[in-house]
From TrEMBL, chain A:
<dbReference type="GO" id="GO:0009055">
    <property type="term" value="F:electron transfer activity"/>
</dbReference>
<dbReference type="InterPro" id="IPR014730">
    <property type="entry name" value="ETF_a/b_N"/>
</dbReference>
<dbReference type="Pfam" id="PF01012">
    <property type="entry name" value="ETF"/>
</dbReference>
<dbReference type="InterPro" id="IPR014729">
    <property type="entry name" value="Rossmann-like_a/b/a_fold"/>
</dbReference>
<feature type="domain" description="Electron transfer flavoprotein alpha/beta-subunit N-terminal">
    <location>
        <begin position="21"/>
        <end position="214"/>
    </location>
</feature>
<comment type="function">
    <text>The electron transfer flavoprotein serves as a specific electron acceptor for other dehydrogenases. It transfers the electrons to the main respiratory chain via ETF-ubiquinone oxidoreductase (ETF dehydrogenase).</text>
</comment>
<protein>
    <recommendedName>
        <fullName>Electron transfer flavoprotein small subunit</fullName>
    </recommendedName>
</protein>
<dbReference type="InterPro" id="IPR012255">
    <property type="entry name" value="ETF_b"/>
</dbReference>
<comment type="subunit">
    <text>Heterodimer of an alpha and a beta subunit.</text>
</comment>
TrEMBL record, chain B:
<dbReference type="GO" id="GO:0003995">
    <property type="term" value="F:acyl-CoA dehydrogenase activity"/>
</dbReference>
<keyword id="KW-0274">FAD</keyword>
<comment type="similarity">
    <text>Belongs to the acyl-CoA dehydrogenase family.</text>
</comment>
<dbReference type="InterPro" id="IPR009075">
    <property type="entry name" value="AcylCo_DH/oxidase_C"/>
</dbReference>
<dbReference type="InterPro" id="IPR013786">
    <property type="entry name" value="AcylCoA_DH/ox_N"/>
</dbReference>
<protein>
    <submittedName>
        <fullName>Acyl-CoA dehydrogenase</fullName>
    </submittedName>
</protein>
<keyword id="KW-0560">Oxidoreductase</keyword>
<dbReference type="Pfam" id="PF00441">
    <property type="entry name" value="Acyl-CoA_dh_1"/>
</dbReference>
<feature type="domain" description="Acyl-CoA oxidase/dehydrogenase middle">
    <location>
        <begin position="122"/>
        <end position="218"/>
    </location>
</feature>
Length: 256, 384
């Protein structure tokens, strides 16, 4: 059995600065694996370990994502191999374009892929659409909001946690699943795994070399930070009659 | 000269940060100081990440690495947790066992770590009347007619001593008198009949339990002797230099945590209508702290690098430990000053760090003993 886990590499949001014109500058940011994709890697790694399956990480991310440290960081958390397209076309690509690139990488996995595991959403755009788009490109079923998964008689059994109900679904493979962050707590990469990561195979190409089409279906006009609101410096004191009601009205006014 | 970290070192630092964030939030750390221990869950997670195996040889299941990386691991663990932990003392005891013990003796390291993340062994060295004055030691083993030995005496300031499955004990061979220079190291199970411990309450470092250990006619056998008979002190001395490096690395990490807190507070705290960090006197304190941090950090990594080159750092680390551990206490004192009255409460952690750092002036030899070591060595560096 082969499992692929999709990982987006994003600039660390702690290092992103906002310019006076509200544009975002991530040029000095370190590249990291997107936060909730770490939970997806962990869930996929646990399933792979339980089933004796081979786990491959796939990624379509920005041009700096091929950095050796990022590769080792991903490979120190369970996957045996990394296939990556590192190209700035994927920094803010729409979900469909990213899904097409990931589908290409799924096709590149030796022996084919039985299951693709995706995180809940990427730390930068958080569209949460790549899992369904990828399933559609691959022509396989997709289940999202997955909070547990196991193999039973050759089929994948997942728990899907919705607002009012937990569904248990059996799905024939191949399939794509989108997992919720609480499916698994990411492991802390140990030094043994970190040292071993440098010896695992990693294939990193730009879009042209990978032979993928980067023409998007969505055009991005601009990406800007929200306008900063000035502090109002209003003080409410419950000792004053009516202040509590005024406070509630003020909060309600903003929310409405 | 290259001051940059390798990818692997950076990833190690990131793993330490993830570990600290997960198990050492403010409330958990306060609970640890209250309970006088690090909970099993945090110790097991430390083991699971492989941190205790760093620096141990491959043959015993370790992850060989250089002294610089071990120093970095120590500094960052202490900075990220802001707390004393038993791990480094545990690592040093395992290093002695792996280096000087037989394969059978060294095998207990992995056997015990299979069971839990708790440290495997504690080193019993100091006595009420002997520490740096090792010849004053009175713990002694006496050979019996059946070939076994009777160990008797008292050890004190034994870090982790009540919480470990094994003790590494140094005792004089046959004769406890001052002029007997023959001492041996022994690997003894904590649960052996005749061994008892009594808790000592420290003024800081509460997360690292500290005990007196009494040996009342404890029977040990030849296969428990670590290394050559009579050579125990010489063996232990081999790792004193590195131990002192780790004491400084711990202090450096805690000092950095205090500085992180102090600078953050100085930026937030408004007095006279502006943040106190704009006050030149506060800036002086912050600058003095930064000088101490940079000075001890560069000096420490120079010592560790020199160790990795196979050179002696006997006097270098003695000077650094004497000056650096004192400077770190001053740094924490400055941090308390920046917090003002709040710094003298238990609402913030700089006071706790100040108490913890005071202990590092004593751990691994007092500042005065360090000065004595360096004071004798330095004149030899200058040709007549």
């Amino acid at each position: 059995m082969n499992i692929a886990v999709a990982v987006k590499v994003v600039p660390d949001d702690q290092d992103i600065t906002v310019a006076p014109d509200r544009s975002l500058d991530s040029s000095k940011a370190h590249q990291i694996a997107s936060e909730y994709d770490l939970n997806a890697i962990e869930a996929a790694a646990q399933l792979a370990e339980a089933e004796g399956a081979r786990l491959v990480a796939i990624s379509a991310s920005n041009a700096k994502a091929g950095d050796m440290k990022v590769r080792k960081s991903i490979l120190s958390r369970g996957p045996e191999e990394l296939l990556m397209i590192a190209d700035d076309a994927y920094a803010f690509a729409d979900s469909r374009t990213t899904a097409k690139a990931l589908a290409k990488l799924v096709g590149d996995v030796e022996g084919g892929v039985d299951l693709v595991v995706c995180g809940d959403g990427s730390a930068d755009m958080y569209a949460g659409q790549v899992n369904v788009q990828l399933a559609s490109v691959l022509g396989v079923p997709c289940i999202n909001s997955v909070t547990a998964m196991r193999m039973e008689n050759g089929a994948l059994v997942v728990e899907r946690t919705l607002d009012d109900v937990v569904e248990e679904i059996e799905v024939a493979l191949p399939a794509v699943v989108g997992v919720s962050p609480d499916i698994a707590l990411p492991r802390i990469a140990g030094m043994r795994e970190i040292l071993a990561a440098g010896k695992k195979p990693a294939t990193v190409n730009d879009a042209a070399a990978a032979g993928v089409d980067t023409n998007g279906t969505v055009e991005i006009d601009s990406v800007v930070a929200p306008e900063l609101a000035d502090r109002k410096r209003e003080i409410f004191d419950t000792k004053n009659d009516g202040d509590l009601d005024a406070f509630i009205d003020a909060v309600a006014g903003v929310i409405r | 000269m290259d001051f940059s970290l390798t990818d692997e070192q950076q990833l190690l630092v990131e793993s330490l940060q993830e570990y600290a964030e997960r198990y050492f939030d403010d409330q958990s750390v306060m609970d640890m100081y209250e309970a006088h221990q690090v909970p099993a869950e945090a110790q097991d997670a430390y083991r699971d990440a492989g941190f205790p195996f760093m620096g141990l040889p491959e043959e015993v299941g370790g992850i060989p690495t250089d002294h610089v990386t071990l120093g970095l691991m120590t500094e960052k663990l202490y900075e990220f947790t802001g707390a004393m932990t038993p791990f480094m003392t545990g690592m040093l005891a395992c290093a002695d066992l792996a280096e000087f013990g037989t394969p059978e003796q060294a095998a207990v390291i992995m056997e015990e770590y299979e069971k839990s993340g708790q440290s495997v062994a504690a080193l019993c060295l100091s006595e009420p009347a002997a520490g740096s004055d090792n010849m004053g030691m009175t713990c002694v083993t006496k050979k019996q007619a059946d070939g076994s030995f009777i160990l008797s005496g008292q050890k004190t300031w034994v870090t982790n001593g009540a919480d470990v499955p094994y003790l590494i004990v140094i005792a004089k061979d046959e004769d406890a008198s001052r002029d007997n220079t023959k001492m041996s190291l022994w690997l003894v199970k904590r649960e052996t009949p005749g061994i008892s411990t009594a808790h000592l309450t420290k003024i800081g470092q509460h997360t690292v339990p500290f005990v007196e250990v009494y040996f009342d006619d404890v029977v040990v056998t030849e296969d428990q002797r670590i290394g050559e008979a009579g050579a125990g002190w010489l063996l232990l001395m081999k790792n004193f230099e590195f131990e002192r490096c780790l004491v400084v690395a711990q202090g450096l990490g805690l000092a950095q945590a205090a500085q992180n807190d102090a600078v953050k507070y100085a930026k937030e705290r408004i007095a006279f209508n502006k943040p106190i960090i704009t006050n030149p006197r506060v800036q002086d304190l912050i600058e003095e702290n930064e000088i101490i941090l940079q000075q001890t950090r560069h000096w420490l990594y120079y010592c560790l690098w020199k160790l990795d080159q196979g050179e002696s750092i006997n006097a270098d680390i003695a000077m650094l430990k004497s000056w650096g551990t004192r400077a770190h206490v001053q740094l924490a004192d400055n941090a308390i000053e920046i917090f003002g009255g709040l710094g003298y409460t238990e609402e913030v952690r700089v006071g706790r760090i100040w108490r913890d750092l005071r202990g590092n002036m004593l751990a691994g030899g007092t500042c005065e003993v360090m000065d004595y070591i360096a004071g004798r060595a330095i004149p030899k560096w200058y040709a007549d």
